[in-house]
Design brief:
The complex is a heterotetramer.
Chain A (H helix, E strand, L loop, with lengths): L2 H21 L12 H16 L3 E6 L8 H21 L4 E4 L2 H17 L11 E3 L4 H11 L7 E7 L4 H10 L3 E6 L2 H7 L8 E3 L1 H9 L4 H29 L6
Parallel strand pairs in A: 1-2, 1-4, 2-3, 4-5, 5-6
Helix pairs in contact in A: 1-9, 2-3, 3-4, 3-8, 5-6
Chain B lengths: L1 E2 L6 E2 L17 E3 L6 E3 L15 H4 L23 E2 L8 E2 L3 H4 L28 H4 L4 H5 L9 H4 L21 H4 L21 H4 L21 H7 L18 H4 L21 H4 L31 H4 L13 H4 L41 H5 L5 H6 L8 E4 L5 E3 L4 H8 L10 H5 L13 H7 L37 H15 L17 H22 L14 H11 L6 E7 L5 H18 L2 E6 L2 H10 L13 E2 L3 H11 L5 E6 L2 H13 L5 E5 L1 H6 L9 E6 H12 L8 H31 L6
Parallel strand pairs in B: 9-10, 9-12, 10-11, 12-13, 13-14
Antiparallel strand pairs in B: 1-2, 3-4, 5-6, 7-8
Helix pairs in contact in B: 19-27, 21-26, 23-24
Chain C lengths: L1 H24 L3 H35 L4 H25 L4 H31 L7 H18 L4 H12 L1 H26 L9
Classes of the chains: A alpha/beta, B alpha/beta, C mainly alpha, D mainly alpha.
């Protein structure tokens, strides 16, 4: 069977099971593990407002017209609490992005947080910045934001590669606490030795954590579907293995 | 969560209709006085505008010395207010009197994943008093307890069948009129008519509303906690405007009965025999009516503005919008029949608000109901649970004994009866906060102007307004009947409400204790700075040493990488003029590392005479392509380089439009760019693919590099130099700089390994545990 | 009108996604062309986004001139170099002499040097790993990393074989689990967008 | 490039490399100025190429007289949508660009969704399965089985269910969770080594470039 029809079947299964769990959301109460990093994001606004320190959010270089659109959207889902709280406190973070379309989405999200509480006049567009065209320059310039920002917070959430270690090292250097998450193996490999497990979301936890912290039935249904598709995937791998063992499969 | 009485589906607290069967959900409410929103009984704050619904001081049940703690078994009921164990948490409300314990819909869902409790009232099996069985939701009644009929004494009080058609089929029979006001106003249920039979008990006689003017509001369909009880759960919020009931404060649980602040001027206190404190506020005004008349009919003139019909969703019984100024219906139905048919001036005014969606109210005049005589009211037997609430001396003398041993007392000789019943009746404990609301000053005599009355009035002691004269005593409003809608002069803009909600969530947000707060890292000390410089210095020295041509301990052997052979064989298989698409997916930063493999590749392609098209999704990639094509020998028949903006989008559209290539070569130093090309190729033309990647991408791309149409892989400097060596006769003699760079890289790798392992052991030993 | 304002934009976003997805999953004639057209339009709109972001970059750096002492010079340098490069490269194209000069003299050495810095920052993070991770994880991580470092360009063949096995079996399993997990999360987040549960595009 | 420009490029490149590598020893002012120039040149260069593509591939053909109405419409719609997106630059008029953002997001989600399915899930499942094919020999089958089991365990480790704690969950669940974590750590360590090697190579090539230019400037042969 060619991949395209396999993909069509997989899409129908995924969409069908999500619809089922959304409709039956009351029966399926899913206990979800703790994702401390997402719970702590909104608190960073409180801490930066109380301490008058810098709150820097690095969103990476995920292009929203391409492969990284969904990762960047999920980063905003995880940051929704933080953005609302920042609008309420009127202590917005400095948001840096390394992609033009991602910059526009970040600008929208921050402006809407202000507009939602009728405070759009207080919104300052210069705090959401498009910083550089290439990934490594983006990381280096974002790191300069942490200069003399002792006691501040540095949230790294989005599409990165190994250049994220420049950002984390700058945080270490200037006494700034870092937390965040990433999906690409290169970025996770660079963040794993620098951040402890309760301030880092790795791979799928990046998606599950941002959905779990929304605490609404629809996102619980989405987590249920994710759990179901995990077992479908495992069954498919086992079948593919058995098929290859008996000489049916490719390879 | 609210359990639908009809189909049993669980619904959100704020739902007004059941999600699965559409039946109106029964909820008892606390109405927010600011934004009129109806909140579930247990709410501490209003859902919509976050006004506090439960006065702060009333939250903590006070156990003062003066009130002896009730001995076990003592039947004295302490009316104290339910307290949420921790502000903001939606933990179970505590502090209910026992008889109410099982009724709150706050009972938490059991933690296990099993089917949530069939009914909010039944997290664990609770022994409910009989009299409440009849009015609990269907589930409770059917789940284990036998469905018992309404107690007789309530039977008589149910709204007469004829006037109101019950919307939901009231299986256990229509509720008593005095409870009918308790029905959830949300549902568009037309109130069921109060049952005819059975006279009112004396103690309620004063409350009976004349049936003629007001048809009772929506009947209390079986549903969770009835309003007048919820009043015990959540007395009127502080912010609520204090009702200016001068004839002394209504007790909280009856507060709802008081006329809204604007329309009511207190009537004179009752002259007849001393009524019990908790009832004294509601005894008939002097002159307005004889004993037993609805006690709270004020004398204030009707408000001049146009009558405002209650909006549809708060009209509750919507179908029967109250005539402006009529006494709240559940009480009017209890009043003795000799009231004048026309609502007196200044009667309890319920403005009617026009709303488009509201059902057209049926304003046909109701038939003249028969008013229970004073004796009938007196003979109404008092149920067990009410008798225990009866403070001393609150009932008249017994005129008979009902079949269940209930003592009928007349209103007139209450004091005497109490003397006899002293032994049986336990003194009702009136809570501290209720005592404060006890009327202190004498009401304004007739004919006296307000100024004169104020000048004589005593000063207010205590509270923010202490020292001021003639202040109206705060009157607690427990709940306003569903069809009552205060005229809110100032409509709060949504933005202000949203901001208030945000502030509230901020204040309520418990500090997340589980997360170890990221320790504020102090700026690293001199030690760390030295370590940084040392590491940098070591790397620079070890890197520069071989580059300067100095001897190195080991000359790196060039091994044959597994992917190189496939790479070379595929290119060797190309016919002259074969179409090759080369994607340059690395930036200026990675150019030096990729140069190790691009140079031998270009010479190989030129040697095969292939027609090469160059593309890149990176702007700088186009510039790098020009760097690569500096040598005219490599430039035979190649297309001008194509820039594909829009990352994957650009690749997808290019691949779909150009199907004619024989081989796709991807030179990538970014894992996502390589993945895009492999994915779009798999989706599209599925050309044979050759991949050249940097070391960083190579270690990650293993999972991707085992796909079907992948013919050859070159990873990093080591495979590149090997390919270069193979293209130049097997040794790197012609490329000295590349050989030195390779030696420098290997040297750096070994030094880095030593630093990593040494640093790790050192840190493990000193074990400074810090958070990230 | 209110309905259109609230759901109009969301509807268009979902319609675009569904059409492109159908064009990939059911590559039949009309859907394939529609997909291509929409992808190319998105590419062109992205260029306008780049132009807007560039203007914002200039504006931010000009705004920094107010605090001249701290940010003045870097702000000026960024604005000047950006406008000069834009004009030169737009006129001459990538093959132009000045374009080549800027690429070879500024971009390649500059970004290569910055990437070189990541070698030191990664190494320092590796050394400090024991401060944030438990001991058994630290030993496993550092051991495997050290083995790979010396096994990638092996001087001792046995190290090369062991490194190759570690890379092809346990590391493959771990990375594949990571990548498949990310793909699952991407699927569900995409479905939430297609169902209209997540609406980053609308004003709500 | 004429020889003199080569020399200029060499000198500029050397200065840039030295100033940027100075960050190793301190966050100096010169480092920031150099970084500022790098940012400006990078952004200008990328935008210039993108605008050239837009002008030569879209705007000029749209304005061309011979272009048919249908093709002209095909060219004009994205340009109008792009122009609408420019309103995003003014907070008050920003909603005017929402339609264009919706199309960008919609296309991104579709591409990412299909990429996840067709580029990651299906090939990976196929590759995991085909690792067990006997054609590659018994040794490979043993490795294939290990990779299959390891991938399943690693995938289960990312489940959103609460982590099994010792004493609360069965022992095999605790060990399954722990083993999936170890597999992930091995994978990350391999990726870390790859990234570090790549960075080391960049450092070596920077140093090589530096030395080469220094010596050529000082006319001293290496």
């Amino acid at each position: 069977m060619n991949p395209t029809s396999l993909a069509l079947i997989a899409t129908l299964i995924a969409a069908g099971s999500l619809a089922y769990y959304v409709l039956r959301q009351r029966r399926y109460v899913l206990d979800v593990r703790r994702y401390p990093v997402f719970a702590a994001l909104a608190e960073e606004v409180g801490r930066s407002a109380e301490g008058g320190t810098l709150l820097h959010v690095a969103l990476g270089r995920g292009d929203i017209t391409g492969q990284d659109a969904i990762t960047s959207m999920t980063a905003f889902l995880g940051l929704s609490g933080l953005l609302n709280m920042a609008a309420a406190y009127d202590t917005p973070p400095i948001i840096t992005t390394g992609n033009p379309t991602l910059y526009l989405l970040a600008d929208d999200m921050m402006r809407r947080s202000y507009a939602r509480i009728g405070n759009v006049k207080r919104y300052r567009p210069t705090l959401v910045q498009y910083v550089a065209a290439s990934p490594i320059t983006y990381a280096a310039v974002s790191a300069t934001q942490l200069y003399k920002a002792e006691g501040g917070s540095n949230i790294v959430l989005g599409v990165f590669d190994q250049e994220v270690s420049l950002l984390l090292d700058a945080g270490e250097r200037h006494g700034v606490a870092s937390l965040g998450g990433a999906v690409s193996p290169q970025a996770v490999a660079a963040m794993y030795p620098a951040l402890s497990s309760d301030v880092l979301a790795i791979g799928e936890d990046f998606f599950s954590g941002s959905a779990a912290q929304m605490e609404s039935p629809i996102y619980r249904a989405s987590l249920w579907t994710q759990e179901l598709l995990r077992w479908v995937l495992i069954a498919a791998m086992v079948l593919a293995g058995l098929g290859a063992l008996v000489g049916l499969g490719g390879g | 969560m609210i359990r639908c009485p009809k189909c049993g589906a669980l619904n959100q607290d704020s739902s007004r209709f059941c999600n699965s069967c559409g039946a109106p959900l029964q909820r008892t409410q606390i109405r927010c006085p600011v934004c009129k929103t109806l909140n579930p009984a247990g709410n501490v704050f209003c859902d919509k505008c976050h006004t506090r619904l439960i006065p702060a001081d009333a939250m903590l049940p006070r156990q003062t010395e003066s009130q002896p703690s009730p001995e076990p078994g003592e039947s004295v009921r302490q009316i104290s207010l339910p307290v949420r164990s921790d502000l903001g948490k939606t933990g179970p409300l505590t502090g209910f009197p026992d008889w109410l314990e099982g009724l709150t819909d706050e009972t938490p869902l059991p933690p296990t994943e099993s089917e949530p409790a069939a009914n909010d009232f039944q997290a664990e099996p609770v022994e409910l008093p009989d009299w409440l069985l009849g009015i609990l939701p269907q589930e409770t009644a059917s789940s284990g307890e036998e469905a018992s009929q309404l107690p007789d004494w309530l039977g008589g009080l149910a709204a007469p069948e004829s006037e109101v058609t019950p919307s939901a089929p009231a299986e256990e029979g229509p509720l008593p009129n005095w409870l009918s006001g308790l029905a959830a106003p949300e549902s568009e249920v037309t109130p069921s008519a109060p049952a005819e039979e059975g006279p009112l008990p004396d103690w309620l006689s004063g409350l009976a509303a004349p049936e003629s003017e007001v048809t009772p509001s929506a009947p209390a369909e079986e549903g969770p906690l009835p309003d007048w009880l919820s009043g015990l759960a959540a007395p009127e919020p502080e912010a609520a405007p204090s009702a200016p009931a001068e004839e002394g404060p209504l007790p909280d649980w009856l507060g709802g009965l008081a006329a809204p602040e604007s329309e009511v001027t207190p009537s004179a206190p009752a002259e007849e025999g001393p009524l019990p404190d908790w009832l004294s506020g509601i005894v008939t005004p002097s002159g307005a009516a004889s004993a037993g008349t609805a006690a709270f009919i004020p004398e204030a003139p009707l408000p001049t503005g146009p009558a405002q019909a209650p909006p549809a969703e708060e009209a509750g019984g919507g179908a029967f919008a109250e005539t402006p100024g009529a006494v709240p219906d559940w009480l009017l139905s209890l009043a003795p029949q000799d009231l004048p048919s026309e609502p007196t001036q200044g009667a309890f005014l319920i403005p009617e608000e026009e709303t488009e969606e509201a059902e057209v109210p049926d304003l046909t005049p109701l038939p003249e109901p028969r008013k229970p005589t004073t004796d009938e009211l007196a003979r109404a037997n008092v149920p067990e649970w009410l008798r225990s609430l009866r403070p001393e001396g609150s009932f008249g003398e017994a005129t008979g004994v009902g079949d269940k041993g209930t003592v009928f007392v007349g209103a007139a000789d209450l004091e005497a009866t109490l003397g006899e019943l002293e032994g049986e009746l336990a003194r009702a404990e009136i809570p501290e906060w209720l005592q404060e609301l006890r009327p202190t000053g004498a009401p304004r005599p007739e004919g006296m102007t307000l100024e004169q009355f104020i000048s004589q009035a005593t000063e207010t002691e205590g509270g923010p307004l202490s020292g001021m004269k003639g202040l109206l005593q705060p009157e607690a409003m427990v709940d306003i009947p569903p069809d009552y809608t205060p005229v809110v002069r100032y409509e709060l803009p949504a933005a202000v409400l949203e901001r208030a909600r945000l502030w509230q969530t901020l204040l309520e947000q418990p500090r997340s204790a589980q997360r170890k707060m990221a320790r504020r890292r102090v700026r690293p000390g001199m030690g760390e700075q030295l370590a940084r410089w040392l590491v940098a210095l070591v790397l620079l020295v070890v890197g520069i040493w071989p580059l300067l041509g100095y001897p190195v301990p080991v000359n790196v052997p060039l091994r044959n990488p597994s992917g190189l052979q496939g790479f070379v064989n595929t290119l060797e298989g190309l016919q002259p003029g074969a179409r090759v698409l080369v994607a340059v997916e690395y930036g200026p930063a990675e150019a030096p590392e990729m140069a190790f493999m691009t140079e031998p590749l270009l010479t190989h392609l030129a040697a095969r005479g292939a027609a090469v098209d160059w593309v890149s999704t990176l702007p700088e990639g186009v510039g790098l392509i020009n760097n690569l094509r500096k040598d005219p020998a490599w430039d035979a028949g190649w297309q001008t380089p194509g820039y594909l903006p829009g990352a994957t989008t650009g690749i997808a559209s290019y691949v779909s439009l150009h199907q004619e290539y024989d081989v796709l070569i991807v030179l990538a130093a970014r894992s996502d760019h390589l993945r895009w090309w492999i994915e779009q190729n798999t989706v599209g033309p599925r050309w044979p693919v050759l991949v050249g990647v940097s070391n960083a991408v190579g270690s990650l791309m293993i999972p991707y590099l085992e796909i079907e149409n992948l013919k050859g892989v070159l990873i990093g400097v080591q495979d590149g130099t090997r390919y270069l060596a193979q293209r130049s006769g097997g040794s790197l003699a012609q490329y000295p700089m590349q050989r030195r760079q390779l030696n420098a890289l290997v040297g750096l790798q070994w030094v880095t390994m030593v630093l990593l392992v040494g640093g790790m052991l050192w840190t493990l030993m000193t074990r400074k545990k810090g958070t990230g | 009108m209110k309905l259109l304002k609230r759901w109009g934009v969301t509807f268009f976003g979902i319609l675009t996604a569904v059409l492109i997805l159908l064009g990939i999953l059911m590559p039949v004639t009309p859907l394939k062309e529609i997909r291509l057209i929409l992808l190319q339009w998105a590419m062109v709109i992205a260029i306008f986004a780049f132009f807007l972001a560039f203007l914002h970059l200039i504006r931010v750096n000009l705004a920094r001139l107010k605090q001249f002492k701290k940010y003045g010079v870097p702000g000026l340098l960024t604005v000047f170099s950006a406008l000069l490069t834009l004009i030169l490269v737009f006129i001459q194209g990538p093959q132009g002499t000045y374009s080549q000069l800027l690429l070879n003299a500024v971009l390649i050495p500059g970004e290569a040097a910055l990437m070189g810095l990541t070698a030191v920052t990664l190494l320092l993070a590796g050394i400090r790993i024991a401060r944030v991770r438990p001991a058994h994880e630290v030993i496993l991580f550092t051991g495997v990393a050290a083995l790979m470092l010396v096994g990638m360009i092996p001087i001792l063949p046995v190290l090369g074989t062991l490194a190759s096995w570690v890379q092809k079996v346990p590391a493959m399993a771990g990375l594949r689990g990571l990548v498949l997990g990310v793909a699952l999360g991407t699927l569900l987040a995409g479905l939430r967008f297609l169902f209209g549960f997540d609406r980053p595009q609308s004003e709500e | 490039m004429p020889v003199s420009l080569d020399l200029v490029a060499g000198i500029l490149g050397t200065v840039f490399t030295v100033l940027l590598l100075s960050y190793l020893f301190g966050d100096t002012v010169l480092y920031r100025w150099t970084l500022a120039i790098l940012v400006g040149v990078g952004a200008g260069y990328a935008l210039a190429l993108a605008l050239r593509y837009l002008v030569y591939t879209w705007i000029l053909p749209m304005l061309d007289a011979q272009t048919g109405l249908e093709l002209r419409l095909y060219y004009a719609i994205p340009i109008i949508l792009g122009a609408l997106l420019l309103f995003k630059g003014f907070p008050r008029l920003s909603p005017a660009g929402n339609l264009s953002m919706a199309i960008l997001l919609g296309s991104g989600v579709a591409v990412a969704f299909s990429g996840a399915l067709l580029g990651t899930i299906i090939p990976q499942v196929d590759a995991t399965g085909s690792g067990l094919s006997l054609r590659a020999g018994v040794g490979q089958v043993f490795n294939g089985v290990l990779v299959l089991l390891g991938t399943i365990i690693a995938l289960l480790g990312f489940s959103p269910r609460p982590e099994p704690q010792v004493g609360q969950a069965r022992l095999w669940q605790v060990w399954l969770q722990r083993f999936s974590r170890y597999l992930l750590i091995i994978g990350l360590a391999v990726a870390f080594a790859g990234a570090l090697t790549s960075s080391l190579m960049m450092l070596v090539s920077s140093l090589a470039f530096l030395l080469e230019k220094l010596f050529s400037i000082l006319a001293i042969g290496l």
